UniProtKB/TrEMBL annotation:
GO biological process, alphabetically ordered: negative regulation of canonical Wnt signaling pathway
High-level lineage: Eukaryota, Metazoa, Chordata, Craniata, Vertebrata
Signal sequence coordinates: 1-31
Transmembrane segments: 356-376
LRRCT domain segment(s): 294-345
GO cellular component: a single term: plasma membrane
Organism: Chrysochloris asiatica
Protein name: Trophoblast glycoprotein
Length: 420
């Protein structure tokens, strides 16, 4: 899973020192968590699931289906079929694991408590059956640095899910890491609206996420990146778009992501990168780009990218990139291509071209035969036309004759006399 990679904050400015300390501590907690959960799971295996507590508890106590460690400031309510967030979370909680539950909906203020959970820095909601995240679901969590919503079938993500219900006030969210891997609902392709657009709206709202350092959006079937999805995330250092279905980056701009350090685009459907994208990536001072396992199309449009690849240091593992199309170029290494290799065949494939040529020849033959028949029959046609002309003439002369008879009074008299 992409989430397995290094999550610690990268080198940054002094203002973030406190946050980094929190995250380092968090890293220590999660690395030491296997023993922690092993020791505590036996003790609470018997706790009843139905008793999802709604009664307030004394501070320092632990919600019934959960395991708490005040020393580690950690609460784990893992694989408990919980249908709602426990109300009585202890105020010391810094790391909250609510994974493997059945939460369905995260309502507004799902974690708002009196007094607030002022210490909560890392919230893991992965695999908890969340289908709907309401506006301001993470409100009143002033220290929340890391949020993992992965592996939830998010049918509805409010555009102000991360920014709070006071979207007009551009209060920055404290979030630094937002992990949204595999949040595409099942059968989303049948759905009318754009999943990409829904996620993008939540990432843009009110510039609340301008402090975000890490954004993971892997395995979401993204077909495209909405045009402005990154413009409100100027602090991004790590962007993970692995295992989507991105075909092109032509509409998205990386220009303002001057802090970007890693850009993961492996396992997408990219065919080529165009000049503008290449120039933008080249202009970012710290970035490393990962492009493996894309179906690169090695035709004349690939020339700029190959030229760039040969010179750039930006792409990690660039020697591994190979062509997928056209057929004759399959598995050729991009770096070893010469411009003479990269040409654009006419649009039609060879087989279809020959069949069109054949059709043309057949049509021409038919036309020629038709003309030949006409030529061979020229005497008959001449005769036929003469016949028609004669017939017309006879006919017309008949009319003419009768007209003259009717028009001439003498002849009229004559004829009438002759009747006598
Ligand atoms: C959670 O619910 C599922 C099905 O409803 C059940 O199979 C499983 O045993 C439950 N887990 C716990 C920990 O109660
Ligand atoms: C999750 O909860 C809903 C009711 O809120 C229930 O219908 C469903 O069966 C539960 N799923 C599991 C796997 O327990
Ligand atoms: C959240 O929990 C899941 C399941 O235990 C785990 O795979 C994931 O790495 C956790 N996320 C973070 C950010 O630690
Ligand atoms: C929105 O912000 C204003 C002023 O910052 C505050 O008075 C108001 O209570 C907030 N509303 C909500 C719903 O938080
Ligand atoms: C799809 O969305 C459009 C507007 O966004 C709406 O008019 C249309 O009725 C929707 N179709 C279905 C099948 O929901
Ligand atoms: C890639 O994404 C698909 C669909 O989202 C998922 O089923 C699959 O497990 C992912 N593969 C990896 C290696 O993460
Ligand atoms: C980049 O930032 C500048 C100023 O900070 C802004 O004017 C411009 O619109 C931004 N461009 C993009 C594509 O976000
Ligand atoms: C891309 O840029 C290179 C050099 O900057 C230039 O030679 C080339 O013509 C450009 N390609 C396109 C399609 O504009
Ligand atoms: C590319 O051209 C160079 C010299 O121009 C030649 O040495 C090399 O073999 C060529 N490579 C391919 C794959 O044709």
């Amino acid at each position: 899973m992409p989430g397995g990679c290094f999550r610690g904050p990268a080198a940054g400015d002094g203002r973030l020192r406190l946050a980094r300390l929190a995250l380092v501590f968090l890293g220590w907690v999660s690395s030491s968590s296997p023993t922690f959960s092993a020791s505590s799971s036996t003790s609470s295996a018997s706790s009843s699931v139905s008793a999802v507590s709604a009664q307030p508890m004394l501070p320092g106590q632990c919600p019934l289906p959960c395991e708490c460690s005040e020393a580690a400031r950690t609460v784990k309510c893992v694989n408990r079929n919980l249908t709602e967030v426990p109300v009585d979370l202890p105020p010391y909680v810094r790391n909250l694991f609510l994974t493997g539950n059945n939460l369905s909906v995260l309502p507004t203020g799902a974690f708002a408590r009196q007094p607030p959970l002022a210490e909560l820095a890392a919230l893991n909601l992965s695999g908890s059956g969340i289908m709907k995240v309401d506006a301001g679901a993470f409100e009143h969590l002033p220290s929340l640095r890391q949020l993992d919503l992965s592996h939830n079938p998010l049918e509805v993500l409010s555009p102000i899910a991360f920014s709070g219900t006071n979207a007009s006030t551009s209060d920055p969210s404290p979030l630094m890491e937002l992990i949204l891997n595999h949040i595409v609902p099942l059968g989303d392709e049948k759905n009318n609206r754009s999943f990409e657009g829904m996620v993008a709206a939540a990432l843009q709202a009110g510039q609340a996420l301008r402090g975000l350092h890490r954004l993971e959006l892997a395995s979401n079937h993204f077909l495209y990146l909405p045009r402005d999805v990154l413009t409100r995330l100027p602090g991004l250092r790590h962007l993970d778009l692995r295992n989507n279905s991105l075909v092109s980056l032509i509409y998205v701009s990386f220009r303002n992501l001057t802090h970007l350090e890693s850009l993961h685009l492996e396992d997408n459907a990219l065919k080529v990168l165009h000049n503008r994208t290449l120039a933008e990536l080249q202009s970012l001072p710290h970035v490393r780009v990962f492009l493996d396992n894309n179906p690169w199309v090695c035709d004349c449009h690939m020339t700029d990218m190959v030229t760039w690849l040969k010179e750039t240091e930006v792409v990690l593992g660039k020697a591994r990139l190979t062509c997928a199309f056209p057929e004759k170029m399959r598995d050729r290494v991009l770096l070893q291509l010469n411009s003479s290799d990269l040409n654009c065949d006419p649009i039609l494939p060879q087989s279809l071209q020959t069949s069109y040529v054949f059709l043309g020849i057949v049509l021409a033959l038919i036309g020629a035969i038709f003309l030949l028949v006409l030529y061979l029959n020229r005497k008959g046609i001449k005769k036929w036309m003469h016949n028609i002309r004669d017939a017309c003439r006879d006919h017309m002369e008949g009319y003419h004759y009768r007209y003259e008879i009717n028009a001439d009074p003498r002849l009229t008299n004559l004829s009438s006399n002759s009747d006598v």
